[in-house]
Amino acid sequence: MLYVVCIQKMAIKIADEIWICTALLHKENPYKTDFSVAEIVDRVAEENIFGRLRPGVIVHVNLHCVANKRPNPANYRTLYETARGRRRLFKAGDNFHPYREGGKTHPLPEEIPEKFQSLLSWHKSHF
Predict the structure, then answer these.
(1) pLDDT (tens digit per residue) in 42-96
(2) Is 125 helix (H, G, I), strand (E, B) or coil?
(3) Among the four residues 10, 22, 29, 83, which has the most C-beta atoms within 10 Å?
(4) DSSP assignment letter at 66
C-alpha cells in the first residue's frame, strides 16, 4: 500500500515571509545592525515558510519592502536600506519615502504561522 504524505505550507505574503526571516536574523545576531540582501534571501530559502523560494522575494528585498525607496508599486515599510545592498527591519522614527505613508511595517498575527508570532512581541520591545 502506498501512503502519500502531504505537508501543507501556509499561504503567506512575500513581504511577511521576508519580515519574519529578517527578524530572525536580527534576533539571532543582535550585534549586527544590518544584513546583505543575499543573507535575507538565503534565510527565506532556508526557512521555506511558503514551500519554495518564490521569484518575487529578491525584488521585494531590493525594492517593494524598502521604506526609504520610492514605491513601485507596493508601499511596504518593513525594511530599511542602511547602505547599498544592506537592509534591516524598519524602525519607528526612520525616514521613508512620502509615497509609502501608511504602508505596512510588520505582519499581523493572523497573517503568519503561529510558531513565528512571538517575533511580533520581540520586535515591539527591540524596535
Answers:
(1) 999 999 999 999 999 999 999 999 999 999 999 999 999 999 999 999 999 999 9
(2) helix
(3) 22
(4) B
Element (H, E) at 47: helix 37-47
* Residue 126 pLDDT level (bands cut at 50, 70, 90): confident
Which amino acid, residue 113?
Answer: P
In the chain, where the domains are located: 14-119
Radius of gyration in angstroms for the set of CA atoms belonging to the chain, rounded to a whole number: 15
Q: Is the pTM of this model over 0.85?
A: yes
- Are 15 and 76 in contact by the 8 Å Cβ rule? The answer is yes
